[in-house]
Amino acid sequence: MNELSSKPHVSHQGQSAGLWVCAVCLAFLVLVQAGLSFGQPEGFAKAEHSAGMVSQTQSATLLAADGGAEDMILVLDERTETLSVYHLDIRGGLQPLQRLPLPRAFLDAKASSYGRP
What we know:
Elements: H1 12-37, E1 45-49, E2 52-56, E3 60-66, E4 71-77, E5 82-89, E6 93-101, H2 102-113
Antiparallel strand pairs: 1-2, 2-3, 3-4, 4-5, 5-6
Helix pairs in contact: 1-2
């Protein structure tokens, strides 16, 4: 008898992208916490790091970073639990690249790690 697998096929490229996004989110949060621990005001914290400029309000955090040929802007929205990635184009302005629901990204990363040593 042949058994069909009910496990969905996920490409390694998709898994890798999800893990990279999670890694960027964690690095981003570390940078934000570092800015808060250096005596910045609680409601609005700013810190300059080698990765870029970090700014936080009550429900959103923004990271501006040098993406090589273009500048990248990451917005972490705590209310909707999403990470939005934009690139800044001089001619076209702010262009959206990706919007990622964080709970789904962490679930995908966790699911992709099963079965690996």
